[in-house]
Please model this.
Amino acid sequence: MSRPPTFAPPPCARARVLGTERGDFAVLDAVPRTPARATALLLPGYTGSKEDFIALLEPLCAAGYRVVAVDGRGQYESKGTDRQESYTQGELARDVLAQAAALGGGDGGLHLLGHSLGGQIARAAVLLDAAPFRSLTLMSSGPAEVVAAQRDKVKMLSEALSVLSMDEVWQAMRALDPPQDADTGDGADMRHRWLAHHPAQLIATGAQLAAEPDRVDELAAVGLPVHVLSGERDDVWPVELFDSMARRGGPRPPPPPPCAYHVVRGGDQSVGRFRRATNL
Model:
């Protein structure tokens, strides 16, 4: 489970609702003091939320970017349904395209970043329509399904969500893995976020992570600039897979070189640790 360092956004950002043709989405919107160079749309991972990106908002904003981190359908403060069909990857990808249309991007255009599950949803959106985006960044987001140990965890969680309440599942998870790595007091914010998630969203997206096909070649054929970002450690996808997907996933034809790949020393699956490791 992602553990943001805090749930309080920095002064440059405000919580608001982004209205789109596919409904309303809760966002953190960070706007620079000077005209923005471009806009970045950030998609969180499995069990995560827009708050996962809090540590990145201020440095990116200071660099001149407007940054919009979003709760996807059924995540935390964005509304959802109790129907798993609402959370197919295609539906979530169309939500991203609607968010992009609502944001525009201005003269600098719109950059798309997805963390973990969010990266696979971002990829699906680009494969539906790459036109709204200037680039795609895949942050700790592998080329296909997660490793076997993670598939087992997702299966266990989905089975628990089918028979237990969100609070009962939270208590079980906390007993196994207390949120001690986050500066979130007694975990009240983490618990509040967990309880706000729709179980159907978690079950549906967990199944996607366990069965995602390799679509790297499809993405390469689009020709959009792609940046693959990983930490030195990752327990969801083997780190060497990120290097491989970057070599396969560059824009072509031409130029033929692979897309950019960057390993953050000291980083792992956590967005917050990326921030600390890069010293942005």
About this structure: The two ends are 23 Å apart (CA to CA). Strands lie at 13-20, 23-30, 38-43, 65-70, 110-115, 135-139, 226-231, 260-264.
